[in-house]
Amino acid sequence: MSKVFDGVLLVSDIDGTLISRDYKVHPKNLEAIEVFKRQGGLFTVATGRSYEAARPYALAAGVNCPAIVYNGGGLYDFDKQQTVWQSFLPKEANAALLKATAAFPEAGAEIHAQGVVYLLQSSPEAQKHIDDEGLTVIPCTPDSLPESGWNKILFAANPEILKRLKAFSDENSVPGAYYIFTSRIYFELIPAGADKGMALVKLAELCGSCREKICAVGDYYNDIPLIREAAISAYAANAPEDLKAVAQYVAADCDEGTVADFIAHIKTILGGK
Q1: How far apart are the C-alpha atoms of 266 and 261, rounded to whole Å?
Q2: pLDDT (0 to 100) of residue 201
Q3: Sign of torsion over alpha carbons 167, 47, 230, 29
């Protein structure tokens, strides 16, 4: 006898979606995810976080297939504790980083490289990022950075500084990479072709999921590719207003159980009672 969610792949962003503003997985989400999995569903997360920063929430939510990490730059299997696939920034990113930090000494700069976070330049916003995600960082200088294997660069600063940094990046593009805002205070350099949507396609192929049973929910601009690749999609009620029209459904606020509400919506779409 088939189950309601047989073959359904559900992917959720973490911050502002799976977890509430106090950085906890809402109990409604935990309960709904367990029911979803018992009824045949595959659940995982898609995040800009490294796999180490995503680990507590992925394990708490009980993901049962590989997760999308580094904003689509990698797939990580928490069950096997191994990277399934990942992409790297081109060597030109090294010079671009040094140029940007010289021009914006007030912006924090983190280099995420295969599970290790190097802190080249600090800022109050970078410290917030480190504290919020529970990161262990290695302070470094330009000479002590690894030469390759960079998954992403994260700049952390107040919105006004990042606005100027974006204008600077528009004039100093990096071949084989692109810049994207991942929050009001975070601006990242990501490998070209790597985004949550592309990673979702790879994940679906890996899991054998058919297109019409792919579901995704998020809360920010870097979730747009994820939302567009899903057959059934939602943005959390706390997402910026202009994003809500991108998805098919507006789910509950992250403080009220976004994922649980979306699972109930998916069940209605699939004809479950």
Answers
A1: 9
A2: 97
A3: negative
Rounded Cα distance, 28 and 49, in Å: 23
Residue 149 identity = G
Q: 52: closest CA among 148, 143, 138?
A: 138
Overall number of domains in the chain: 2
Q: Which of 255, 116, 123 is nearest to 186 (CA)?
A: 123
Beta strands in the chain (DSSP E): 9-12, 42-45, 67-69, 74-77, 82-86, 108-113, 116-121, 137-139, 152-156, 177-183, 186-191, 214-218, 232-236, 249-251
- The token pair at 101 is 């930090």
Phi then psi for residue 119, to 5 deg, are -105, 105
Q: What is the pLDDT of residue 229?
A: 97
Q: What pLDDT shows up at residue 271?
A: 81
How are strands ordered across the β-sheet holding 42-45? 42-45, 9-12, 214-218, 232-236, 249-251
End-to-end CA distance of the chain: 16
Reference 228, options 199, 262, 253; nearest CA is 199
CA proximity to 199, closest of 51, 5, 36: 51
105 and 186 assigned to the same domain: yes
Structure tokens at 193: 């072709």
Domain that holds residue 247: 9-86+194-270
Q: pTM of the full predicted structure?
A: 0.91
Q: Which residue has the tokens 């107040």?
A: 158
Mean pLDDT by 10 residues, the chain (273 residues): 89 98 97 98 96 96 98 97 96 97 98 95 97 94 96 98 98 96 96 96 96 97 97 98 96 98 96 63
Q: Is residue 264 part of a domain?
A: yes
In the prediction, which pLDDT does 163 show? 97
